[in-house]
Amino acid sequence: MICKRLRQLRASKELTQQDIANKLGISRQRYNNYETGKRIPDDDTKIQIANFYGVSIDYLIGQTDNPTPYDKPKPKTNDKHVDKKLNEFIDEVEKTDGLMFSGDPMDEPTKEVLLRMLKTTKDMAKKMNENNKK
How many helices and strands (H and E) does the chain possess? Predict the structure, then answer.
């Protein structure tokens, strides 16, 4: 089935076997062998081909007629922004009375120390990140 899909995909892009072989870094003859069924591409080559055409490997090998690759779970946008998460957490700690730490009530001086440490850590990370960009 893979040989049929390879021919269909290549034809749909109006590419030659040489074009695809060049993209994959293999000889035209080797790619021809994939399309004629004389050889089966190894897994890494299947991944390269699927990525090139924007299809799933399941589609490439004939397990499904849905060419759409499976979506990888995307992290929530805020999960990428550590500074925003830290700011939200700092705000929450500042606003919350009666905080507990390891099951014990947290007094105000301890809460203040925690807040200073969180803010200092955030500021240090920001500076380090900016320096690393230079």
Answer: 8, 2
